[in-house]
Write a structure and sequence with these properties.
single chain, 196 residues, mainly alpha, two-stranded antiparallel ribbon
Length: 196
């Protein structure tokens, strides 16, 4: 698998999972769109997730190589395997779905998301890199969602900071673990295809 194919796979998997989980957010009233098109979502949701995941993949590649002198990133840039990829993706999707079903309890979601991220971070590898990636994704996700909210194109039921709920950053932080394993499985493992 060529590197560009691996990037396309990561982007398409991420955008598809995020779009399906976002549909749960619509169904549970967690988010609403000004101009719903299909299943309550706006026409631009899937294309927006494509661009979002393309930016995350590009940012990962550029940043991981740039910070490798300051902190270990070698394992995070090496070939991975299917099992950690599937585990991290399923856990991310489950947390995303929980955020829809429990969106009326934003404090509970904050505790769950930040505490479980901390637990996963403690037992993970290359923790400095993971924390940097997770913080950037958490802040970037809040800013991106906040900009969409500021335009009036979408609105969350509950907001804490800049048109977004605070638990959303925790969800994006969990996404950093899924992104890392996706990159290892499909992009850095791309010379011989995904490892099993």
């Amino acid at each position: 698998m060529a590197r560009s194919t691996g990037i396309a796979v990561v982007v398409l998997i991420g955008a598809t999972v995020a779009t399906l989980c976002d549909a749960n957010h619509v169904r549970t009233g967690t988010i609403s769109y000004r101009d719903p098109w299909l299943f309550g979502q706006a026409w631009w949701v899937f294309p927006e997730f494509i661009l979002t995941f393309l930016a995350m993949v590009a940012g990962y590649i550029l940043l991981a190589s740039r910070v490798s002198r300051a902190m270990p990133t070698q394992r995070s840039q090496s070939a991975g395997s299917v099992r950690p990829f599937v585990e991290s993706l399923v856990l991310f999707a489950c947390l995303y779905l929980i955020s829809g079903f429990a969106s009326r309890e934003p404090v509970f979601l904050c505790w769950i998301f930040y505490a479980t991220f901390l637990a996963r971070w403690i037992v993970s590898y290359e923790r400095a890199w993971l924390l940097l990636l997770a913080l950037l994704m958490g802040i970037g996700g809040m800013v991106g969602e906040g900009l969409v909210g500021a335009t009036g194109l979408a609105a969350y039921r509950h907001t804490d900071v800049f048109h977004a709920p605070l638990w959303l950053a925790g969800l994006y932080m969990h996404g950093a673990l899924a992104l890392r394993e996706s990159m290892r499985c499909f992009v850095y493992g791309s010379s011989n295809g995904p490892r099993s």
